Amino acid sequence: MAANAEKLLMEESRTATARVLMVDDDDMQRLLARTALENAGFAVIEAGDGSELLDAFHAHQPDIVVLDVLMPVMDGFDACARLRADARGRHVPVLMMTGLDDLESINRAYEVGATDFVTKPFNFEILGHRLRYMLRGKRDADALRASEQRLQLAQRIARLGHWECDGEGRFTHWNRATHSALGLGPATEVGGFEDLVGAVAAEDRERFRDMVARAMRRGEDFTLEFRMRAGDDETRDMHLVALSGQDDDGRRRYVGTVQDVSERRRAEQKIHRLAHYDDVTGLPNRSAIRTGLTEALAQASRHERVLAVLAIDIDHFQRINDTLGFASGDELLRAISARFRHTLRISDTLDQAGDAKLRDALGRAAGDEFIVLLPEITAAEDAAVVAQRLRSALTKPFQIGDKEIHARVSIGISVYPGDGASADELLRHADAALGQAKREGRDCYQFFTKQLNASAFKRLTMEMQLRGALERGEFVVHYQPKLGGDGELRGFEALIRWIHPELGRVSPAEFIPVAEETGLIVPIGEWVLSETCQQLVRWDAAGLGPFKCAVNVSGSQFRVRALPERLARVVTAAGLDTARIELELTESMLMEDAALAIETLDGLKALGFGIAVDDFGTGYSSLSYLKRLPIDVLKIDQSFVRDLPGDEGDVAIVKTIISMARGLALRTVAEGVETAEQRDFLRDAGCDELQGYLFSEPRAAAEMTDWIVAGGGR
Ligand code: C2E
Ligand code: MG
Ligand code: MG
Fold first, then answer.
1. Average pLDDT of 666-686?
2. Which DSSP state fits 646?
3. Quick one: which of 604, 602, 541 has its CA closest to 576?
4. Cis preceding linkage at 417, omega within 30
5. Which CATH architecture has domain 521-696?
6. If 433 and its partner were Cys, which of 253, 412, 536, 560 is the partner (CB 3.0–4.6 Å)?
7. For residue 618, which ligand has an atom nearest its CA?
8. Which residues are within 8 A (CB) of 472 and not within 5 positions of it... i.e. 6 or more apart?
9. Which of 578, 572, 566, 575 is nearest to 607 (CA)?
């Protein structure tokens, strides 16, 4: 025997004495075996027949069984089969002793679960060695089994499954843990990735399939995050990792894991909520506001928009806390935040506002301080309007417990780009302005930039003054003529004027935006239309017409329901044909909401109105879209006319617009024609109509009548 093996056996014999159960009907054989095995360091238990095997096994728990094949009552085959069927006898090594050196009984021995066999007669010295080798194999197998069980347990705890698949995504290994990690029912057959798709949550299915297919095509490693349907309205978050490799034959294969990470996700979400939201009001906290503001700033700078930050502090909040207690203080904070949300029409929280369409956002900075972001205002002064609205929202007292509480706030406003370019700077300046508001005696708002206080005041007064202007008859319509290339009068544009008793003449450029925001533009616009129609009828009656007249329609009017019908009603009420009215809409209005624009324009067209695109060239028209709009006229914006004919760029633009309009069978009108050179150039370039101070500024009806009678435009 090799020295090595001997050493090994010595070592083995030093471990606890192994017990051998010797089952043989031949007393002599048993005795010989016992002697040899005891000499070799085993303890021996004997049984005389297969039928005694199980009892002896249970009574003595041997480490190994030596089993004769031929026995009178029950042979070794049956005895071995019974032992294997017993829960405790499943793994014990069984050595079959067969006198029959034929293949069939050897096969049979293995079939009934024998571990190994020896044929009689055999050398008893060797038997001991044989048994030791078997025991060692058994211990290795036991260790492996235990390790596998531990692994399985660990996988179950970690909700981790393991799988392997070929290059086509067909699983070649797929364990139970994988099945249960994915939450699949035991009956679900899984042959390949394709079989999993159905159980993936509907919204992730497409991506799941695409990513697996792409990774397989490229033979790359991949990771996938997806959700599995776990019930009617429950999903599990899954994390799948796949490593690409090759099998022994050089074919592509993947090994991977899949893990149920739902709990981790939930924990992450909770951490996120704790980190970004205030738990009293549920509003985003200061750090979330900073993030939102940074994103909003990036967008504002990209689109050259104005953005405002409002820092709002509840006046004397400490007093409320002191007298009513913290619980009531919290309740008041919640009630105030609810009114603010309502006023700002906020339904979404800040982190969802990060996407393309930014909305106003409300957050709680600390203690009794709220922050409002206004990412889409058109002018700094608009922030004051919102500040006013927020203050008004608190007019009605709060009912906290049995107490009625009047809350007032101080507001500081900073505006991008004027007051800073970074989130921190704007927040700091809003706070500084808030400090100023407090020093001013609280219950008011202050801009960080002092001048804005004055212009915001003007803006707010204007809003107030504008409210009664229509009733007080402060508006008038002026008319500006449009002339053909031959100098003949083709029609007019109606332009509103506001003559305020104190403010004096207010430019439409100033008050139209305010009228739009407040919704006053709707009655004002209809008044202009009605007034214009009546004037056209008067000119008809005086035998001066019939003229056509253009009337401006603003963006917020455009969104009024059933606008075409409403406008048509105004025109018919004056006893006029809608064909006499051309509605001017700006390019940006039409591009903002294409679907709505087409629908409304179709409606207006069907009712007989002419349509002109005002300020053409200043917006971002998509030409393919322009082609689909039912329009009649392009009004070339004054900015392109101003430097004609000297400016080469403008020359090119104007010529292009005119030839494009021709191609689309549209007429062109040039605005802001002030010089004879401009007139000549435009006429030669083929512009259909001209409008501008060269011919006449906009005039009130009576003066325009004089101008017409005097032969103006000829
Ligand atoms: P718009 O529709 O583009 O009107 C043309 C503006 O150019 C008018 O200014 C007009 O007075 C001015 N203009 C005319 N000829 C010349 C010229 O030769 N040189 C220069 N530099 N300017 C000229 P206005 O009347 O101040 O109106 C400004 C804007 O206010 C209008 O631009 C229009 O968008 C809006 N608007 C005026 N009236 C109404 C109205 O009744 N409803 C609506 N929604 N908007 C109106
Ligand atoms: Mg116009
Ligand atoms: Mg214009």
1. 95
2. T
3. 541
4. yes
5. Alpha-Beta Barrel (3.20)
6. 412
7. 3
8. none
9. 578
User: Which atom of ligand 1 is nearest to 528's Cα?
Assistant: 41
Q: Which residues form ligand 1's pocket by a CB distance below 6 Å?
A: 480, 495-496, 507-509, 512, 525, 528, 552-554, 584, 614-615, 638, 671-674, 692-693, 698
Which part of the chain has CATH 3.40.50.2300? 2-153
Per-residue pLDDT tens digits for 332-375: 999 999 999 888 876 444 444 333 334 568 888 888 899 999 98
Q: What is the pTM of this model?
A: 0.53
Cβ neighbour number for residue 582 with a 10 Å cutoff = 23
Angle, CA 581 vertex, CA 576 and CA 586 arms, to 5°? 155
CA distance 654 to 632: 17
pLDDT in tens, 553-605: 998 888 888 899 999 999 999 999 999 999 999 887 887 777 888 899 999 99
The CA distance from 23 to 56, in Å, is 9
CATH no. of 2-153? 3.40.50.2300
Name the residues around ion ligand 2, CB cutoff 5 A. 552, 584, 614
For ligand 1, the distance from its centroid to the CA atom of residue 526, given in whole angstroms, is 17
Ligand with an atom nearest the CA of residue 482 = 1
pLDDT for position 102: 74
Pocket test for ligand 1, best of 495, 554, 689 (most atoms within 8 A of CB): 495
Residues of the chain with CATH 3.20.20.450: 521-696
